[in-house]
Amino acid sequence: MCLERLNGLVAVPGNPFLGARLGGCDWRAYPGRTPVAQTSVNRGANLPCGGCHGGGLGNGLNSMFISAKDVEFLWYILAVAAAVALVVALVLGLGLSRYTSGLTKAAHNIGLGQTVAPKKLMSSELAGLATELQATSEKLDESRRREAAMEEARRELVSWVSHDLRTPLASMKAMTEALEDGVVTDVSGYHRKIIAQADQMAVLVNDLLELSKIQSGSLTLNTGPIDLYDLVSDAIADLAPLAAAKSIQIDGKAVISTVVNADSALICRMIRNLIVNAISYSPERSVISLSSGMHGDSVEIVVRDQCGGIDPADLDRLFDMGWRKSTERSKSAFSGAGVGLSTVAGIVAAHHGQVTVDNTEDGCRFIVRIPYEVKA
């Protein structure tokens, strides 16, 4: 029989000639034979309906066949692979959902002002996102702390300013009433005191104005060549009466003539505030010394006093706006309501310089460095 020669294999269905009969033999007559797939047919084959010969079939068909057992095995592999893929997809999906939910909660907590703690994630992409959320949370937390500190400083500043304005105003009112009533014998002395009180308030108001410009970033520098010797000499001359009231000597012999390109008015205010601060905290019959010189590409101004030193814990806060160690500051003239040194720091920063303070044997030392060439 033809199908015996084919060893139980038949051609692909779809070819009516080969599919129905091969060599005159009906393959459906052999239920034990398995139909398989024919992959290629030699177009030049000539298969007569009479008997089938092995050589003719070999020359006429180039075929590849899969047995029934192989088909069953393939279906088994596909089923197992599908099951494994489903399990893996579920595991990954559940894990991803859990971690994304954690990130969503973290983002919500950031909006509530809470700090997000870092968590380990299985995905590098999610780990990167978590790291960014953590960094953002830390930055926001630091910003909130700075804002709270600034708000506290503002409250302190308002309190000190109110006190420092109220005190001279009350004194001026009392002296004016005394002059009006004619009970004053030293009229010129009262006039000088009133002028001094007015000067004190003017200094405070001017410092507040400059500080507000510094804080808002609207401070404009009018730079030009200035001689530090002239500025220091003028400041010493202006503040000599204030120092004389406490028998304090201001020594400016170590100041040399140094020309720098800076804002004359602001540098003068900076020097004045440093001297006033030294007078306020120096004991009677002490010495305040000033010096200047060159330090690399900057000029250096140094103010030393004999105040007895500053608590190391307070050094970092000394230039904070509105900060004062105690109410003792308000008892001295030109106390500045805690804005004098803040103004100094702001002016130096506007000139791209640096101001530092440290303790000496009998007092403290303020060092200001400003570049020779300052761009407005």
From TrEMBL:
User: What would you give as a GO molecular function for this chain, any one?
Assistant: ATP binding
> Transmembrane helix among the record's keywords?
yes
What InterPro entries does the database record attribute to this sequence? BphY/WalK/GraS-like, HATPase_C_sf, HATPase_dom, His_kinase_dom, HisK_dim/P_dom, HisK_dim/P_sf, Sig_transdc_His_kin-like_C
- Spans through the membrane: 73-96
So which domain of life are we looking at? Bacteria
Q: Which Pfam families match?
A: HATPase_c, HisKA
State the top-level EC class: transferase
Name a single GO biological process: osmosensory signaling via phosphorelay pathway
Q: Which reaction does it catalyse?
A: ATP + protein L-histidine = ADP + protein N-phospho-L-histidine
Spell out the coiled coil positions from the record: 126-153
Domain Histidine kinase: residue ranges? 160-374
GO CC annotations, alphabetized:
plasma membrane
- Which named protein is this? Sensor-like histidine kinase SenX3
> Which species is listed as the source?
Renibacterium salmoninarum (strain ATCC 33209 / DSM 20767 / JCM 11484 / NBRC 15589 / NCIMB 2235)
